[in-house]
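[recover] target loaded
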């Protein structure tokens, strides 16, 4: 058996996209294909997708793409937009079973609350929370501090302070000082 026989072959892109564009029209929310809906427990996977999943999911994906464009996700910069959060909130609020209920934010959705109790999210990185200008100020101030600390006179001063702390047991002296201060305060109150 030739080795190539077991290898997956590349897709013929022209054949893949040769179907008419009308076949790929996004359905309107809640709009199902014409005809009687099949029994969801007995229908084929394709019928189930076409009648029960795509009429809700595809408009949600279209809304997701519009929101991602608004959030400038396609510009190549990192951002705080989380597509799965948006889609979860959108699908929950557009669920036909919740037709008459008010809008619910993502972190107020019951199953999301339950999930986050057991799986807390890590904090959002500072780089996504501050602007480029604020980040540049932080970086520049850190760099200036580093350059100052590298100065030989500053190094000498830091070494002297360290030696002084060790020789005079400065930590012990400070603790004794504050103990005396607290003792004075309790005598004056009494």
């Amino acid at each position: 058996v030739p080795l190539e026989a077991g290898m997956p072959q590349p897709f013929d892109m022209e054949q893949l996209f040769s179907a008419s564009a009308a076949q790929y029209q996004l359905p309107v929310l809640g709009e199902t294909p014409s005809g009687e809906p099949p029994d969801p427990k007995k229908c084929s996977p394709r019928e189930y997708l076409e009648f029960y999943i795509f009429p809700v999911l595809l408009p949600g994906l279209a809304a997701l793409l519009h929101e991602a464009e608004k959030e400038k996700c396609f510009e190549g910069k990192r951002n705080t937009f989380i597509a799965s959060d948006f889609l979860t909130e959108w699908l929950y609020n557009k669920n036909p079973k919740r037709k008459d209920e008010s809008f619910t934010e993502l972190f107020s959705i019951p199953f999301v609350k339950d999930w986050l109790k057991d799986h807390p999210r890590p904090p959002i990185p500072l780089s996504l929370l501050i602007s480029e200008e604020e980040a540049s100020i932080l970086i520049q101030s850190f760099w200036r501090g580093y350059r100052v600390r590298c100065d030989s006179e500053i190094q000498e001063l830091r070494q002297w302070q360290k030696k002084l702390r060790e020789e005079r047991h400065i930590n012990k002296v400070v603790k004794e000082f504050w103990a005396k201060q607290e003792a004075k305060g309790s005598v004056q109150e009494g």
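[recover] notes: The longest helix spans residues 45-70.
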